[in-house]
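Structure first, sequence second, as always.
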């Protein structure tokens, strides 16, 4: 599939800028942020995405809390 040049240029620029971000009022940026060690995660919703994320986090060794609206959602 041939991608028009202007679309290709836009995508390349967006890709280059994706890792550069800042919060309003100079509260943080991609340069000043530090990772936070995680031991547990919470996921709200046990649908297709929530269930998949919960499984992935469990397999990754995280204590995982899955909050559902109904007990029948995750069956």
């Amino acid at each position: 599939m041939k991608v028009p040049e202007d679309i290709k240029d836009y995508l390349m620029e967006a890709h280059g800028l994706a890792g550069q971000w800042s919060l309003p009022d100079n509260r943080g940026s991609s340069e000043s942020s530090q990772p936070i060690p995680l031991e547990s995660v919470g996921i709200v919703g046990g649908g297709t995405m929530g269930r998949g994320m919960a499984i992935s986090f469990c397999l990754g060794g995280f204590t995982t809390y899955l909050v559902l609206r109904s007990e029948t959602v995750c069956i």
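Margin note: The longest strand covers residues 40-44.
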